């Protein structure tokens, strides 16, 4: 009887842990979908690690700014440079004015990582280079 109670308690703990992790991952996805271009960086656009296992993963500077902005993407957040790499969040995400409609021809970089920034190639040259690899 005592052994059964232990297994029951362990089973309940495992189920609760799985539900907690699934819930945390689901909410992170909901937050990501509020950003116009999240597919390139996924979780790393807001977190310090590329694949956080729980909702308690540390936020990077952009993730913190996004959260402080009410978890929404807009012109205010687009004009900020959260990671201080001299490129605005909008420039890095590919939505300069923050209207939620990304310019897919624009090169993107992570707005939460100061070591990742757009190259110095202008948009026209970048478009020519991209077309070389497009069939
Ligand atoms: Ca930046
Ligand atoms: Ca950056």
Q: Overview of this structure, please?
A:
By secondary structure, this protein is mostly helical. The chain has one domain. It contains five helices and no strands. It is elongated and about 75 Å long. It binds calcium ion (2 copies). Residues 81, 83, 85, 87, 92, 111 line the site of one calcium ion (CA). Residues 81, 83, 85, 87, 92, 111 line the site of one calcium ion.
> Main sheet, how many strands, which sense, barrel?
none
What is the arithmetic mean of pLDDT?
82
Relative strand content: under 5%
User: For this entry, what is the oligomeric state of its chains?
Assistant: single chain
Termini separation: 68 Å
Structural class: mainly alpha
What compounds are bound to the protein? Answer: calcium ion
Low-confidence segments: none
SSE topology string? HHHHH
Which geometry do the CA atoms define?
Answer: elongated
Which percent range fits the helix content? 40-55%
Tally of DSSP β-strands: 0
Total tally of structural domains? 1
Task: Tell me the number of helical segments per DSSP (H or I, 4 or more residues long).
Answer: 5
C-alpha Rg, in Å?
20 Å
